[in-house]
Amino acid sequence: MRSVHKTVLLNETIDGLNLSSLDKKDNVLILDATFGGGGHSIEILKRYPNVKIIALDQDKGAWEKAKDKFKGLEKRISFINKNFRDIDQIFQKENLKDSYAFTQGGIRTGNQHDALNLSNYLFDGIIFDLGLSSDQLENSGRGFSFMKNEPLLMTMKENPLPEDLTAMDIINGWSEKSLADIIYGYGEERFSRRIAKAIIEARKLNSIENTEDLVKVISDSVPASYRRQRLHFATRTFQALRIAVNDELGVLEKGLEAGLRVLKKGGRISVISFHSLEDRIVKRFFKDKKDKEEVILINKKPIIANEEEIINNPRSRSSKLRILEKII
Ligand SMILES: C[S@@+](CC[C@H](N)C(=O)[O-])C[C@H]1O[C@@H](n2cnc3c(N)ncnc32)[C@H](O)[C@@H]1O
C-alpha cells in the first residue's frame, strides 16, 4: 500500500532550514529524523540538487510505502529503520561507515558506501515531524484509531517484539492509579479516574484486546454530554496510551539533545509538534539552549498552519513549528 500521508507545514519547515544559503556547497547533508511518508525528504531532494538525506523511521513500513516517490533519487537518500532516540549510537563512526552510506537507496544492509565524505558525521539540517503518520493511523492495523476495530498494540514499530510494551499490556496490566495518571498526564483527560476505574472493572471479566472493547469501556464511563462533544470522547485516552507505549516524550528529549550534538555549527533544526505536551518539551529545550548561548531561535513564536492548509489537511490544525540555529 502506498503512503497517503499529507505533509504538514511543508514549505515552512524546509524554508526554515535555510538551504538556499548552502547552494554553492557540495554534499549538504540533512537528517530527516521522522521520514513517515517521505514528504519533507522528497521535496528537499527535488529543490536542492546538492543535498543528500539520511532518513530515520522506527516504522520499517514507512520506507516500503514511500519508496516509489524516490525513483531516480535513490542515490541521494538512505533510510535507516531506527528510533531517533538512538541518534548518538546510529551516527557513531564505526556504525555509519559500514552500514548507512549511500548506494542505491532503500534499507542499508552493510558494507555499502560511496564517495560521500561523511568524515565528521555532522548535519547541515535536521527535521523532526513528530507523532504518527496518516499511514499509521489509517492503515497500520495496530490500533491507533478508535474508528476501526483493531488489536490494541499502538507501537510505532511495525513488528513489535514480545518484550516491547503494547497498549494491551498497559490496559490489562497496570494499576488503576497508573492508568489514571497516564490518561490524565498524557491525554489531559478530565475523566481519567472514571475511565481508569472502568478499565479495571471491565478487565476483571475479560481482557481488553481491541479498540472496540476499549471504546465501549470509555463510552460507558463518561457522562452522556461528554459523548456528544465535537472531540470524540476516546481521543484523549487513545493519545495517552500511544504516548506511553512509545515513550514519546522521553524519546523527544533524548532525540533533540542528540540531534543538536550531530548538527554542524550554523545548521538548523525544524521541529513540528502536534500537542501541548510535545510543544512544551520543544519550547523548554530551545529556551535552555538559547540561555546557554548554544543556539539562536529563528522564530520567537511557533509557526502554525494557515487557513488554506487547515482546510486541505485538518491534521495540520494543531501543528506548531519551531526552528533553531546552532551557533557554537
Ligand atoms: C508525522 S510522520 C512524518 C511525516 C513526514 N514528515 C512526511 O511529510 O511524510 C511521523 C513519522 O515519524 C516516525 N516516528 C515518530 N517517532 C519516532 C522516533 N522516536 N524515531 C523514529 N521515527 C519516529 C513515525 O513512525 C512516523 O512515520
Automatic annotation (TrEMBL):
Subcellular compartments: Cytoplasm
Principal cellular location given in the protein's record: cytoplasm
Pfam families: Methyltransf_5
One GO CC annotation: cytoplasm
Reaction catalysed by this enzyme: cytidine(1402) in 16S rRNA + S-adenosyl-L-methionine = N(4)-methylcytidine(1402) in 16S rRNA + S-adenosyl-L-homocysteine + H(+)
Molecular functions (GO terms): rRNA (cytosine-N4-)-methyltransferase activity
One of the GO biological process terms: rRNA base methylation
InterPro entries named among the record's database cross-references: RsmH, SAM-dep_MeTrfase_MraW_recog, SAM-dependent_MTases_sf
Binding site for S-adenosyl-L-methionine: G38, G39, H40, D57, F84, D129, Q136
Domain of life where this protein originates: Bacteria
Keywords: Cytoplasm, Methyltransferase, rRNA processing, S-adenosyl-L-methionine, Transferase
Enzyme Commission number(s) from the entry: 2.1.1.199
NCBIfam families xrefs: 16S rRNA (cytosine(1402)-N(4))-methyltransferase RsmH (TIGR00006)
Function of the protein: Specifically methylates the N4 position of cytidine in position 1402 (C1402) of 16S rRNA.
Similarity comment text for this entry: Belongs to the methyltransferase superfamily. RsmH family.
Name of the molecule in the record: Ribosomal RNA small subunit methyltransferase H
Originating organism: Candidatus Nomurabacteria bacterium GW2011_GWF1_31_48
Source taxonomy: Bacteria, Candidatus Nomuraibacteriota
